[in-house]
Write a structure and sequence with these properties.
The protein is mostly helical. The chain is built from 14 helices and two strands. α6 crosses α9.
Length: about 350
């Protein structure tokens, strides 16, 4: 298809974000705190990486029963999800630390998960965060296997049952990293024709190849070489780890944008969205922050998706404090602040959206 560069055009609504940004800046100035995560997020990053690496090392020790090793792969799955949401996500946004080197270092943790930093930065930071919930541009809602996550996606009969089988497909999310990153090369090159992205750099292609090979060595060759497990046993552990991580990551991400109240606007023929960018973020994003601070800590503050989409360069450790400021400013400007009461409420809303999209 021919991609068209999308513009946000609405001068009447453009005063919301400068006012909000000024108030957020005042909060940090008045409290004399930094917008990055500081030492607490570094400790958290090390914990999440340990949640992934320590079980891996224990499996290599060969001192555990098959059942215990399956349990260790489940813990690794939680580690993959924790690293993805609390470490590499902030780091690639540049918000984990004030140091660019530390952000690069912790951002590279995505290679341990089988992903690619460049592809994530383009697909997530540039496209998803700019063109949130816009069909064919935001990959998070477009072109999913057997899923209809956009009302602009062609409806198929099988979609009537997607609210039943969707979560199984979600479990394949991190597994798809192994081939999806190669698939995105042609996608980015097509988008480059309209100026939405840059052509995929040759140096990144080289990096993509060798990091994928390094991941296969790390996750497959080393365990098979240094332990007595069979390929079948390894495959079970590998799939269990990715299913655990994929289920957590996909569910959390979907509850931010594919829920009731999160709009899916369409550009006009000239490629314009008649809205200011920040207001577009409010209208296409939803929070599900409740009283469960442990959950919020584990998922990297992604229950505060509105704050994250408006201020992706601010670490998630501050979103809880920023939320009242954002909500009050939105209400002052007559804008809806879409927030579900808690995780369960958002999950139910997502299932209803899946059912609704599948039936009409």
């Amino acid at each position: 298809m021919q991609y068209q560069k999308i513009k946000f055009t609405n001068a009447e609504k453009s005063t919301f974000f400068p006012t909000l940004r000024q108030r957020v800046d005042q909060y940090f100035s008045a409290n004399q705190i930094c917008k990055s995560g500081g030492k607490p997020i570094i400790y958290k990053a090390l914990f999440m990486l340990s949640l992934y690496i320590v079980p891996y090392v224990l499996i290599l020790s060969g001192q555990f029963s098959n059942l215990a090793m399956v349990g260790l792969t489940i813990i690794m799955g939680f580690g993959v999800a924790g690293v993805g949401m609390s470490v590499m996500h902030d780091a690639i946004h540049g918000s984990l630390a004030t140091s660019r080197i530390l952000n690069k270092l912790f951002g590279a943790s995505i290679y341990l998960l089988g992903g690619n930093a460049y592809n994530w930065e383009v697909q997530h930071n540039r496209l998803h965060h700019t063109y949130t919930n816009i069909h064919e541009v935001d990959e998070d809602i477009t072109g999913k296997f057997l899923l209809r996550l956009s009302f602009q996606e062609k409806q198929k009969y099988i979609h009537r049952f997607q609210h039943i089988y969707a979560f199984f497909l979600y479990s394949l999310m991190t597994l798809s990293f192994l081939w999806k990153d190669f698939k995105e090369i042609s996608l980015f090159n097509k988008m480059a024709e309209s100026g939405m992205t840059k052509p995929f750099p040759k140096k990144e292609l080289i990096r993509l190849i060798w990091t994928k090979l390094a991941y296969i060595v790390f996750i497959c060759a080393i365990p098979l070489f240094f332990t007595s497990i069979t390929f079948g046993q390894w495959l079970i552990g590998f799939l269990v780890m990715h299913a655990t991580a994929g289920m957590i990551l996909s569910t959390v991400f979907q509850m931010a944008h594919v829920v009731e109240g999160a709009e899916q606007p369409e550009p006009d023929n000239s490629g314009s969205i008649e809205n200011a960018w920040a207001v577009h973020q409010l209208q296409t994003t939803s929070n599900f922050a409740g009283k469960n601070r442990i959950l919020s800590w584990f998922i990297g503050g992604l229950d505060y998706q509105i704050e994250h989409h408006l201020f992706p360069s601010i670490s998630h450790v501050h979103y809880h404090a920023l939320s009242p400021i954002v909500q009050a400013t939105a209400l002052e400007f007559g804008l809806t602040y879409n927030a579900k009461a808690n995780f369960a409420n958002a999950l139910g809303s997502h299932v209803r959206m899946l059912k609704n999209m599948g039936s009409r």
